[in-house]
Amino acid sequence: MLCMEVLPMDPRSARRSIAAPKPRPARAITLAVPLIGLALAASALAQPGARGYVDMVYVPQTGKVLLFGGQASPNPPYPALGGTWWWDPADGSWTEVTGDPQPSPRSAGHLELHAPSGTVVHFGGGDSDGSGFNILSETWAFDPIAETWTLLEFEGPTPQAEIGEMFAYHEAADVFVLFGGFTLNGFQYVNPTWHLDLDARAWTQVEPTTPPRGRNYNAFAYDPANEVLVMSGGVEEGQDETWTYDPRGPSWTLVERREGTSEVPYARFVWDPDAATLVRIGGLGTAAAPIWAFDLAENGWSEVMAAGVAPHVSRHAATAVPGLGVVVYGGLPNGESAFTEAIWVVDVAAGTWEAR
Predict the structure, then answer these.
(1) What is the pTM of this model?
(2) Is the predicted pLDDT of residue 224 greater than 60, yes or no?
């Protein structure tokens, strides 16, 4: 997917190279209290920090948002980040999950919720060793109640993670779907479609009808009203396209190719249950905007004009929190050269933006 600057997760970069006096005892006891207070205050102020190529997902069983990984800077040496974090929408606080094992630091991985069990699945991503980008084709599962990560093992074939592939959960079919990406093996876009059945602990490559051309960094999310996955963004040097995918076919369907537009990489698709619509946040290109709503039944896009200062970012994370709105975290604001640690909330139904 075309990018405005050279980043490790951009195919173009892959092509190029890829003596204070001792206190008395009574004072020592007195001083211990503020020290404890300072430690508690520091803990309360802990947060993930600025990052891009990050993902997060709302977990209903906890009422919180889970965040993992990312990248510290869009500039060399492109340091990957680790860390598992909870964000509490009730008070805006961050809490780090510190137990082991955890996935190693990585950027551009995917977090998706398995609705029946509440398990969060992480797939893909990678890190930079200074001389190139290392792809990590691991599948991890996170138990949000026990707060434990498990590296999953499979007896059968498994997919190779690629740069910027799409990954989402289809609730009606109870499978995770993996599509596309840019491979460093041959430096080309690819278009395989894989299904992950978490209960059966199995990956399966499928041969759907009319698959799209290879692409990466498209927005990809489940539309529960129509029971399909929706992908938008398009191909490199192409137009903004919208596709649907039903794993029960399996079948891909081209819904729309927006004439006169450019591709829109690095956006995020989120189903907003309060507004009952798919929401696309940010991205790059002529058809990008802070926020668009997509109605599959009407086959139409509409720009959401929300009051407040709307961030225009890419390489960010986004998820919907029922009763609150769509939460947007981090990424690269347009025209800037550093990732942000800002949090925004857009209430699509009310038409308002709020910085948290």
Answers:
(1) 0.89
(2) yes
